[in-house]
Inverse folding.
């Protein structure tokens, strides 16, 4: 069956809210909401294999460790596991005093009774009573009227409140009511407000309650854009009587992939509380991802009041409990999200790190914040305990990224010309092999290409020229032994004449006419001195741009000698290649 040419024959668009003076678009979020983790309820009910008691216990412990103060732990009347897990939390005293557990129950007396049995003896409990207010539900599923839904909701609110009062008296439990308005975003909002108002009246008719009722507004199925959900939430907040006496929560699902935006806009629209799951687990495409929401706030300089300092551990625990992997592109948590493969991004990251280090150094002692302002890296992954590789190299990469990896592994800050030359070498390999090259592989290609040895014990079998020994005497005379094509030559010269002396020995031994074009020194972060040298062959003229060589040593003169030897080897390599091509 092909896609429809006119999908309107099958699907109706949403009807916008009549809210011409909506306020949320010009507001800015300044603080974190109250969070409710529903990993152990909505997250759990979406799994192929619901969690065992052990898995739920592990996840509960980790969620508490993250700082959640409200956790929906079960739908106790759904199964023995759900019931027993709730009992375990209470009986084994696993719930910290400042944590509220939430349990969910439908508007059915026997389920509500079972739910109360499950929480018997707990200190702080939120009962989430849910009914569905959408016409789809009362017309299709229950085949009843709106009035029936209203009555069912109010009647069961009385049941909940009577049991809450009884359990408070018997066990000292403090209760709060949360009304889960299933189908909220597909409901007639005036009807929702009517049901909500009457539910609140029913709850309060038993006497004052220390805590305000929570109204939980879900996009049970996300069927419209995020701005529409925000309008609906603002409409609810503006039209509920005594708005300041209630708590408004949102519970977004992600069917359109916009649960995070919908929740962020709903907070602007007046919501106080957010339900969600770690990494967006939950029914169908998931509940809203609380990690993303929290770290989005964090990246704006707002504390989420949740601790994701060990995100890796949390990823492992979530995976262990839900058996659902984290997508490599998952915001913040995916293994590729702090990595750039493309040259332009790598260049930005490399320059960004340098610029930021310089800026932070200037700010030292000024008392001004050292802000994170990095191209292509919106946050510092080390804040979440993540080790990451900002730059990884493949055929899409450029000289900047490759130079960045050389700097990381070999501590060399390559000058631009040598970056360009080495980029070509790496690019050819990436293209030919159609694969990523690791930092270690790049370091070893660099060593091989430039015959770059940091000590004399390196494998030098492919070298044409080799520095066998080097010494500077008390009288500043430099002495060394060069091996050229296996034949040893002794060099002895003043520091100032040393470079020409080496070049002449090499020219004499090889018949070439090498001359130095450029030379640069650099003091490395390790204290070593690097020398980059470019030589050309005046006779052959094969390579008008010359050949680069790199040397490093504790001593500047030895470093220079090594760079000449390196450049000579590169010259020989290229001559062999060109001679091979011309045969
Ligand atoms: C959007 C949400 O996440 S809502 C929560 C959904 N979570 C779950 O369903 C997980 C746990 N659920 C269960 O264990 C079971 O479905 C139970 C215990 C709730 C009910 O089980 P059963 O009695 O076998 O009914 P079943 O699952 O087939 O159908 C649901 C019944 O509950 C009714 N129902 C649905 N929502 C509600 C509600 N809020 N209040 C009262 N009844 C409801 C349905 O109309 C249907 O009634 P029917 O049996 O008269 O047709
Ligand atoms: C809060 C409840 C009713 C829910 O999970 C939903 O509607 O998605
Ligand atoms: Mg839900």
């Amino acid at each position: 069956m092909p896609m429809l040419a006119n999908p309107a024959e099958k699907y109706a668009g949403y009807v916008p809210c009549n809210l011409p003076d909506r306020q949320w678009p010009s507001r800015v979020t300044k603080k974190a909401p109250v969070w409710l983790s529903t990993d152990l309820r909505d997250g759990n009910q979406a799994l192929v294999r619901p969690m065992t008691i052990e898995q739920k216990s592990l996840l509960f412990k980790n969620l508490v460790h993250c700082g959640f103060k409200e956790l929906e732990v079960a739908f106790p009347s759904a199964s023995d596991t759900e019931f027993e897990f709730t009992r375990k939390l209470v009986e084994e005293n696993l719930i910290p005093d400042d944590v509220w557990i939430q349990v969910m129950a439908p508007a059915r007396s026997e389920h509500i009774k079972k739910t109360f049995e499950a929480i018997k003896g707990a200190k702080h409990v939120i009962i989430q009573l849910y009914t569905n207010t959408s016409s789809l539900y009362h017309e299709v599923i229950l085949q009843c009227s709106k009035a029936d839904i209203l009555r069912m909701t109010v009647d069961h609110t009385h049941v909940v409140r009577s049991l809450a009062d009884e359990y408070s008296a018997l066990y000292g439990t403090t209760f709060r009511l949360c009304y889960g308005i299933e189908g909220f975003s597909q409901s007639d909002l005036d009807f929702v407000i009517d049901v909500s108002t009457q539910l609140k009246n029913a709850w309060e008719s038993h006497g004052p309650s220390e805590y305000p009722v929570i109204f939980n507004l879900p996009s049970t199925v996300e069927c419209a854009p995020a701005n529409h959900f925000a309008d609906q939430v603002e409409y609810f907040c503006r039209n509920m009587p005594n708005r300041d006496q209630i708590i408004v929560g949102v519970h977004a699902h992600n069917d359109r992939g916009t649960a995070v935006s919908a929740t962020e806009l709903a907070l602007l629209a007046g919501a106080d509380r957010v339900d969600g799951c770690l990494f967006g687990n939950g029914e169908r495409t998931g509940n809203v991802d609380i990690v993303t929401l929290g770290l989005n706030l964090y990246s704006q300089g707002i504390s989420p009041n949740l601790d994701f300092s060990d995100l890796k551990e949390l990823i492992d625990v979530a995976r262990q409990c839900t058996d659902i992997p984290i997508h490599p592109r998952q915001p913040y948590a995916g293994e590729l999200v702090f990595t750039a493969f493309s040259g332009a991004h790598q260049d930005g990251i490399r320059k960004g790190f340098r610029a930021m280090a310089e800026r932070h150094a200037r700010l030292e002692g000024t008392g001004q914040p050292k802000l994170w302002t990095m191209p292509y890296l919106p946050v510092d992954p080390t804040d979440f305990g993540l080790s990451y590789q900002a730059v990884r190299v493949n055929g899409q990469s450029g000289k900047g990224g490759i130079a960045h990896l050389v700097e990381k592994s070999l501590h060399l800050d390559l000058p631009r010309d040598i970056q360009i030359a080495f980029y070509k070498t790496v690019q050819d390999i990436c293209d030919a092999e159609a694969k990523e090259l690791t930092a270690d592989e790049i370091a070893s290609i660099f060593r091989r290409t430039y015959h770059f040895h940091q000590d004399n014990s390196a494998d030098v079998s492919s070298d044409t020229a080799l520095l066998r020994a080097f010494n500077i005497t008390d009288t500043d005379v430099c002495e060394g032994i060069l091996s050229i094509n296996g034949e040893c030559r002794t060099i002895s010269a003043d520091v100032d004449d040393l470079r020409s002396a080496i070049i002449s020995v090499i020219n004499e031994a090889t018949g070439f006419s090498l001359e130095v074009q450029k030379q640069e020194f650099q003091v490395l972060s390790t204290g070593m001195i690097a020398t980059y040298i470019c030589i050309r062959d005046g006779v052959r003229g094969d390579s008008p741009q010359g050949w680069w060589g790199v040397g490093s040593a504790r001593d500047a003169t030895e470093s220079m000698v090594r760079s000449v030897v390196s450049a000579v080897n590169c010259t020989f390599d290229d001559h062999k290649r060109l001679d091979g091509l011309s045969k």
Notes: Residues 71 and 101 are 5 Å apart (CA to CA). The pocket of acetyl coenzyme *A (ligand 1) is lined by residues 42, 45, 75, 77-78, 106-108, 130-132, 141-142, 182, 220 (CB under 6 Å).
